[in-house]
Amino acid sequence: MAKSSETFWTEDPAEGLRVMPGFQLSDRATDATPGFQGRKAEATAALAEGATILSGLQEKLFANSRSGDNRKILLVLQAMDTAGKGGIVRHVVSAVDPQGVDHYAFKAPTDEERAHDFLWRVRRHVPGAGMIGVFDRSHYEDVLIARVRHLAPPDEIEARYGAINAFEQELIDDDTTVIKVMLHLSFDVQKDRLAERLDRPEKYWKYNPGDVDERMLWPAYQDAYQVVFDRTQTEAAPWYVVPADKKWYARIAVQHLLIDALSRMNLDWPAATFDVAVEKARLAAT
Amino acid sequence: MAKSSETFWTEDPAEGLRVMPGFQLSDRATDATPGFQGRKAEATAALAEGATILSGLQEKLFANSRSGDNRKILLVLQAMDTAGKGGIVRHVVSAVDPQGVDHYAFKAPTDEERAHDFLWRVRRHVPGAGMIGVFDRSHYEDVLIARVRHLAPPDEIEARYGAINAFEQELIDDDTTVIKVMLHLSFDVQKDRLAERLDRPEKYWKYNPGDVDERMLWPAYQDAYQVVFDRTQTEAAPWYVVPADKKWYARIAVQHLLIDALSRMNLDWPAATFDVAVEKARLAAT
């Protein structure tokens, strides 16, 4: 764990969440809380503490970009419906100054997007220097729903894994820290969460009949995720599988991954790019 | 004041801040706190209360967009350097779910942008349905710095006011509530704030020697703002001049303008666009 001021973790969760060679999704618990011994109340306190740390680190990242530091972060969020991608954005990413966040939610591709290579639309939303980019869904949909629903020929799907690795390597070469997160939810908890959306009128808008259609394909999606991990887990662009049955755990875990990535950058305030004494004199004369 | 749950205002500030026919910028105090009798401590409490209200209203706006409601908000922020645009984003806009915010900071136009009409780049960033768009600087730079620094021929500048009014009318016809805010700072307070940036190494990155160059043109900028108000104040796309010497006042005032705009929309949770009983049965069968 890079040095930071987080006090709630008993051990660094990152290594335990990270997908390593031989990883099997089906072996991973969806209700575990690796590295965290507290419960919801402690997680609430941890999230608040982490928000302050994250906000401070992000401001330094942003500040350095003004004097030429090209570094940026891309957080990729993938999951089955109701796993909590939106909650991560609302409760974790919201701690960061909106000026420093580039959030993009990928929907089904438009006709124009379909007329291009699958990475075309993704490239248009990669974060610039000093930014934290957040992809709510991503290019991985092109090997998840596309594979499960046969939206492209099998050889085209096969080719995409390599294309994704090459694309992410480009981002890394452009000083991007790539953090890929799969929120790992159980089939039963998804049912509970969908049922809640159908029970509460203020949640109807989050429900889509298509959610049940996708749910019926659950095993195929789990298989497709396993292939994603087998083919696109790289040292430079790691995947993290975050247990998501407990929303509070998933939030502090993803927050930690962001804090850890920023802490490893060893950010400090940038030096003045001007002569401070000269500028003080110029200002005094006005 | 539209009905809302805000409790800290003694009277609706919106009417007092709004630019009306005959408005003179030079008559407006920069250190007043119209509608608010408290001081900084009360403003902190008001900001926290308002954040909860704003967040709840925005979620309804967003939810309705999913079932075809086309409404959206565009907040335009204009000001002299150090007046607090960034603070508004960081402390007011940050209350809103990042998924519902479209923030864009306009810089000096690129070569590609310069090769097009001045509104070309602006159109690319207008908010979509359900979103709160925030422009940190805007098309008004094209009649502010462009006028003060003669970046375009006088007849071209003259033509832009009409183009801006037509453009904003288009946005309004597309169900956009347009809120234009000028943060009104005094010449002396700007000096203090620039001096602070030169005194504190963690603030150096916010300082640019060009800030003093612009400061030396202060009267010309005030005149250019006056022309903006004379020419682009409309009933449908009002300007609000918000005293900004006290940062805490400017923040709660802009927050109030957003809350007020959302309250006037009479938002409720959208009805289900599917048969709830049918969906419950489908889900139960999985």
From TrEMBL, chains A, B:
Task: Report which superkingdom the organism of origin falls in.
Answer: Bacteria
Q: Which GO terms describe its molecular function?
A: polyphosphate kinase activity
Please list the residue ranges annotated as the Polyphosphate kinase-2-related domain. Answer: 40-266
Coiled-coil parts of chain: none
Keyword terms, alphabetized: Kinase, Transferase
Matching entries from Pfam families are given as:
PPK2
Q: Does the keyword Iron apply?
A: no
Residues annotated as transmembrane: none
Gene Ontology biological process terms, A to Z: polyphosphate metabolic process
Keyword Lipid biosynthesis included in the entry's annotation: no
InterPro entries registered for this protein in UniProt: P-loop_NTPase, Polyphosphate_phosphotransfera, PPK2-rel_1, PPK2-related
Q: Which PANTHER family match?
A: POLYPHOSPHATE:AMP PHOSPHOTRANSFERASE (PTHR34383:SF3), POLYPHOSPHATE:AMP PHOSPHOTRANSFERASE-RELATED (PTHR34383)
Q: What is this protein called?
A: PPK2 family polyphosphate:nucleotide phosphotransferase
Q: Which organism is it from?
A: Glaciibacter psychrotolerans
Q: Upper lineage ranks?
A: Bacteria, Bacillati, Actinomycetota, Actinomycetes, Micrococcales
